[in-house]
Each structure stands twice: as C-alpha cells, then as structure tokens.
Amino acid sequence: VDSFNIQLPKGKGSETRALAVVEYEDMVVASTHLDHRNDSSQLAQAMLATETLQSRYAASGKPVFLCGDFNAYPESQTLTYLREHWDMLNKPVTTYPKWKEIKNMETMPQTIEETPGFCIDYIMILKNGVKYEVTATNTCVPFESGSVFQSSDHLPVYVDIKF
C-alpha cells in the first residue's frame, strides 16, 4: 500500500540511522537500527519512530510492528519508554552473544539458555487495540545447516502471532 523511511536524530559521533516502514493491506512493518553510542540520541530515535507510527497508524485498525537492533538492554531508558507504547513480543533473552566467551567454550551452545550475551534485538507491536496472541517466539541458535554464529553478530529472532 505504501512505504517510506525517515532519518532519525543523529547523536554526536554516531552514524546516521533511519526507520524503514512498509504498509500492507493488513499490517504495517517498521524496522530500525538504533544508535549504540549515545543513550539520549537512542531515546530520541525511539521517540520519533513511535510518534511517527502512532500518528499514521494508531487508528488504522492494523497491527503495527516495530523490529530491529535497538542496541538497548531491557532495563534501559529507551526500552522503558518503548514499553509504554508497544508490547514486547519476543522473550528478553540473548540476541547479541558474548562472542569471546563462546569461542572459548568447548562446544557451541545448542540452546538460547546456554548462550551467554545480551538482549538488544526486539519485535514489538503497537498498543492500538489490535487483538493478538503470541503462539511462539524464540531466538534461534541451532540451524539445520550452517552456523548462526558465522552468519551474523546477532541471533535471529522470530515471533508467530495469531490474530
């Protein structure tokens, strides 16, 4: 139906960041990668993303998803703000592993519970009255082929939702 992106506020010494939005007939999906160097810039980016998506889609009746690398821990000011406007859909478990620890382990972790690291990647849904049920969510560690630890510095997160 529509797509656009907006440039997010840039922190001092940081890279330019953006919010990419795609509107479909039955949902809206937005993705971002927030600042990792400046907490106040990161919060300002989260606020602008939220305000933009709320103003355009809060009354649409569509589920609105915000996902990506937020570079923010679950207890951070950024996540505290976001939880006021969004429901967190994925579990707050390791999405950014401690690579040095993993390389020193005798065997690669086989479950997310065995994987040391931090949660900084999220999938959220706007609190706009849309009814949903999370039927599954996980952070993937074992793959049928290849190694997730060689594919990216982050672990893939997924959420299955029933409307």
Characteristics:
163 residues, alpha+beta, globular, 6-stranded mixed sheet, two-stranded antiparallel ribbon
Query: In whole angstroms, how far apart are the ends?
Result: 20 Å
- The coarse silhouette is globular
Estimate the strand proportion.
25-35%
Can you count the helices? 4
Total strands: the figure is: 10
User: What Rg, in angstroms, do the CA atoms define?
Assistant: 16 Å
Question: What would you call the structural class?
Answer: alpha+beta
Spans of 5+ residues with little confidence (pLDDT < 50)? none
Kindly describe this structure:
The chain is 23% helix and 32% strand. The chain contains 4 helices and 10 strands, in the order βββαβαββαβββαβ. It has helices at residues 39-57, 77-85, 99-104, 148-151, and strands spanning 2-8, 17-23, 28-33, 64-69, 86-88, 96-97, 117-118, 121-126, 133-139, 157-162. The protein has a 6-stranded mixed β-sheet. Helix 1 links the parallel strand 3 (28-33) and strand 4 (64-69). The protein is globular and about 50 Å long. The chain starts with a strand and ends with a strand.
